[in-house]
Amino acid sequence: MGYDIERFVGYVNEGLLCSICRDVLEDPLQAPCEHAFCTACIHGWLVHHSNCPEDRQVIDVSLLRPLYRYMKNDLNRLQLHCRNREYGCEMVCSLESIDRHERECEYSQIPCSNAGCTVQIERRNLDGHLAVCEFRSRECPNGCGYTILSAEDTQHNCVAELRTELELLRSEMICRVEEAKHEMESRLDSQRRHMVQKESILQNEIEELKSQMSRMMSDVRSLMAAERQHRQELEQAELEKREL
């Protein structure tokens, strides 16, 4: 939707009006047939149509282009009233600068910054409202350190608040201790499994060494038996030699 033509001071050229909403162009785009539209208006139109609403020529979103520079300059120079005119703002700005003014306008309706407050207030009156807002917060005057809402003054009890805080801290500490305990148990279980696995590997290696040693002993005994046999044969040969 465009800018309400009633807000403008003086005559507005017909070429600067949106061909769909008939208000002054806002964020304008131009079709190849040179008809101009507000971006929101033409995009909404092309959802259900595929032609220009003025001359019915076929157009597509990809064919839309920014407004000619001279038309854009004419548009930006138009003078209009602030949208907060009904609230008392008498500012008249160029279209080029109206958005900047309205973002900072003292007559703009803005929400209260206190959480929970739904009041809409003029920017110029915001400080006065914040001073009396029932949702404003402040630090407890009795020194407990809590931030309280003005509406809770009569219900606030320092001892009860501190007791609640203490219980919360106690619960949080218990949770952290339990978490640390579970983490330590998990680590111990992991280390225990690792040690059992290592022990099994070492046990297998020991058994393998025992098996190797057993084979070596068997080989040594075989060698010793062969050596005795060989010695006996030599002694027998020596006796036969002497007899001869």
Output the CATH class name of the domain at 3-102: Alpha Beta
Our estimate of the beta-strand percent is 5-15%
**CATH level-4 homologous superfamily of the domain at 3-102:** Zinc/RING finger domain, C3HC4 (zinc finger)
Mean pLDDT: 87
Uncertain stretches of 5 or more adjacent residues:
none
**Secondary-structure arrangement, i.e. CATH architecture of the domain at 3-102:** 2-Layer Sandwich
- Count, helices: 5
> How many angstroms separate the termini?
139 Å
Tell me about the largest β-sheet: 3 strands, antiparallel
| Gross morphology | elongated
Would you tell me which CATH topology of the domain at 3-102 applies?
Herpes Virus-1
Listing every helix as H and every strand as E from the N terminus to the C terminus, the arrangement reads EEHEHEEHEEHEEH
The count of strands amounts to: 9
Radius of gyration of CA atoms, rounded to a whole number: 48 Å
* Residue share in helix: 40-55%
Order the strands across the largest sheet as they lie in space.
Answer: 2-1-3
Domain RING-type: 18-56
Protein name: RNF41 ligase
Zinc finger (TRAF-type): 101-144
Domain TRAF-type: 101-144
Write the layout of secondary structure elements.
Layout lengths: L27 E3 L5 E3 H10 L16 E2 L2 H9 L1 E3 L10 E3 H10 L4 E3 L8 E3 L3 H7 L4 E3 L7 E3 L8 H86 L1
Antiparallel strand pairs: 1-2, 1-3, 4-5, 6-7, 8-9
